[in-house]
TrEMBL record:
It comes from Oncorhynchus kisutch. Residues 48-74 have a biased composition (Acidic residues). The keyword Transcription applies. The keyword Cytoplasm does not apply. The gene is NEUROD1. One of its GO terms (biological process) is positive regulation of transcription by RNA polymerase II. Efficient DNA binding requires dimerization with another bHLH protein. Residues 1-29 have a biased composition (Polar residues). GO terms for molecular function: DNA-binding transcription factor activity, RNA polymerase II-specific; E-box binding; protein dimerization activity. SUPFAM superfamilies: HLH, helix-loop-helix DNA-binding domain. This is Neuronal differentiation 1.
Length: 267
DNA sequence: TAGGCCATCTGGTCCT
DNA sequence: AGGACCAGATGGCCTA
């Protein structure tokens, strides 16, 4: 039912109906967009008033005004179970719209909060770039890999070689993200991705077996690589921009002693 | 033009 | 009862 009515009503949006937006919905581009869609919502309920295919207008059951005991009229159809449907009166309609607007605004805010959190995750994960943002899913994957790689360092207390570290970082990432990571580390992605290059030179085999055996691997179809802009790779190890000829050195020099200390404290 | 990504709306469900 | 959370649907934008 959702599909059918949205298909119909979204198409027939009437901008004139959008004048009733609440205070949360004024001004910006997004909001103008919303107004359009709101027009669709309004026309949708206009339809519902005389056509209750899905029983949506049974909302506000508790409403004591305007009880409507109308019968199906169609003898062929089996009688509808459940509470009897009521007409969408103007007042009922108004309240329904109000509730919907409030719920939409809450949902929007919720998603904005989620996106904010994702944005802060992007900033602490390798390869942050304002111009070339990682997609949501790639951000989560990279974050997961990053956490795994760091905890592996913590667990073993040893510094992995750059290849196995980046390999762990890029496990399951799409080709564009892999390129991004490689770009950050000034590496050629072909040199550290066995599943994407189909072959891995013996000298590139990870030094640490545990790094190679990533427990959370999954396959992502290789995707074409978009052109990437410049990116700031400095945050990857949370140090100032550096020459990453030996890309992990800054990180290991600063972080490993700390990690070892914490490791000792734990064990 | 197809496919990926995203924002938004929506109704259902669960929780307080 | 109302809010939070969720998943499905939809349309817009962008890129290969």
């Amino acid at each position: 039912m959702t599909k059918s009515y949205t298909e119909e009503t979204m198409m027939s949006s009437d901008p004139q109906d959008s004048a009733t937006w609440t205070d949360e919905c004024q001004g910006s581009q997004d909001e103008q967009d919303m107004e359009k869609k709101n027009g669709a919502l309004e026309s949708m309920h206009g339809d519902l008033e005389d056509d209750d295919e899905d029983g949506l207008n049974r909302l506000d059951e508790d409403d004591d005004e305007d009880e409507d005991e109308e019968e199906e009229g169609d003898d062929q159809k089996p009688k509808r179970r459940g509470p009897k449907k009521k007409k969408m009166t103007k007042a009922r309609m108004q309240r329904f719209k109000m509730r919907r607007h409030k719920a939409n605004a809450r949902e929007r805010n919720r998603m904005h909060g989620l996106n904010d959190a994702l944005e802060s995750l992007r900033k602490v994960v390798p390869c942050y770039s304002k111009t070339q943002k990682l997609s949501k899913i790639e951000t989560l994957r990279l974050a997961k890999n990053y956490i795994w790689a760091l905890s592996e360092i913590l667990r073993s207390g040893k510094s992995p070689d750059i290849m196995s570290f980046v390999q762990a970082l890029c496990k399951g990432l799409s080709q564009p993200t892999t390129n991004l990571v490689a770009g950050c580390l000034q590496l050629n992605p072909r040199t550290f991705l066995p599943e994407q290059t189909q072959e891995i030179p013996s000298h590139m085999q990870p030094a640490s077996a545990s790094f190679a055996a990533h427990p959370y691997s999954y396959q992502t179809p290789g995707l074409p690589s978009p052109p990437y802009g410049t990116m700031d790779s400095s945050h990857i190890f949370h140090v100032k921009p550096h020459s990453y000829g030996s890309a992990l050195e800054p990180f290991f020099e600063t972080a490993l002693p700390l990690i070892r200390v914490r490791h000792d404290m734990i064990s």
